[in-house]
Amino acid sequence: ADSPLATPWIEDFQPEFALPEYPRPQMVREEWLNLNGLWEFAVLSRDEGSPDRFPETILVPFPVESALSGLGRRVTEDERLWYRRRFKMPASWKGRQVLMHFGAVDWETTVYVNGREMEHHTGGYDGFSVDITPALEPGRIQEIVVSVWDPSDTGGQPVGKQHKEPRGIWYTPSSGIWQTVWIEPVPEVSIAGFRLIPDVDDQSLKINLATRGEARDLVIEAVAFSEGREAGRAIGQPGEDLHLAVEDPRLWTPDDPYLYTLKLSLKRGEEVLDSVDSYFA
């Protein structure tokens, strides 16, 4: 789409490389599938059902109003956006649960997988995830359909400086999918998230990790690394505070913004059920 501010970067942009980097650097898994790129697209009135046809294409994850989306069009509060994407599940993921993540969608979102409604979310700035495993159909191409309604400044939700009539300090709205969409396979019991709290005086890192699924008889192993060498190790229980000591730590400063790397593993005995990489300072 035409842009009021075209740059050489825009001219050289290729849809297959739309935000290809891993979207969650604080909690990295090795296996994942990026669903950014060209999606089928349709705009209907808000009260209509799902479209029979998707006559346009849009480049995800750029807002409909942006030039990089390929559309650069305005959306009214009486319209609903519809996205469709088909993909093939990697064969190596068979037997595992599959999570779909949306970095952000503005504003009210419904997610369908193979015709089955899997998630309804409201909020334009927070990410959300859904376990799509029950809707997946082995041996076929999987279909995702996403419905989005965004009233922008005519609704009651937080919109920042978005405005239907941008001027002065008010900006063009950012409707629809505007952060990375991706999927990843996880075991039945997996790491759901964690909090990291460094304690400079105690020279330690407090870790509290939550799991998905029944965490009975499981332990968490945390290993810190500095320039590839082990800098500390601790073992504890999911849901409990784990204290990882780091002797004589190299402290982060603006002049030396040093980061330690961290590997967290969920284990049953010597078997590693799930592991993620992170970082801390």
Automatic annotation (TrEMBL):
Keywords: Glycosidase, Hydrolase. InterPro entries: Beta-gal/glucu_dom_sf, Galactose-bd-like_sf, GH2_Domain-Containing, Glyco_hydro_2_N, Ig-like_fold, Ig-like_GH2. Transmembrane segments: none annotated. Gene3D superfamilies: Galactose-binding domain-like, Immunoglobulins. It holds the Pfam family Glyco_hydro_2_N. Residues 76-153 form the Glycosyl hydrolases family 2 sugar binding domain. This is Glycosyl hydrolases family 2 sugar binding domain-containing protein.
